[in-house]
Amino acid sequence: MNTNRVFTKGWSNQASYRLYSRGWPNDPQTRQAYENGKQCGGCSFYATFNQDYGLCCNRKSRHHLETVFEHFTCPAFVHEGWEPHSFSDRQELHCECAGAANIPTADKPAKCLRTRRSFDHQLQRPGRARTAKEQQAVDRLHSEAEQRLIEELKREWKKQDQEVTREMLQRKGFSERYVQRFLAAEI
User: Which among 166, 171, 168 has a CA at the least distance from the CA of 184?
Assistant: First the structure.
């Protein structure tokens, strides 16, 4: 049974802990989602308390308002990446930096990328669509900014002696598109 106290250093519901520790014995779909990396730390509705635990804020989840382990999961999982989170199931509101802003040396480019995208949306006048040429220019700016960010992240991880592998990028919540771009990027 869940309690009305906020736990920040462990599970608030022991039944949820048992599901996790036993590998969801009666729920093979949830177990498969977990094995495919769909874990709470990458869910849009996960509010981090510390490096291991956070609060489930998804009203559609059977674990809503429980303190859960970041590697837990449930059928209501909404993929966004492993920080920051928008607490929304609307993909257009999801963060596009895939947590890059949390890496100190990448903070400025990530903010610049988000600012540029916001600025682009502000320039878009209601009722007027961009021309194909304008859209190509915006897409090129986005792509160039993302490429610079990818290269900066790779350099930072290299300084920290972290090997950039497909598995590492997937654990961090990067989409397949970004995984391919990271692996192809030369630094």
Answer: 166
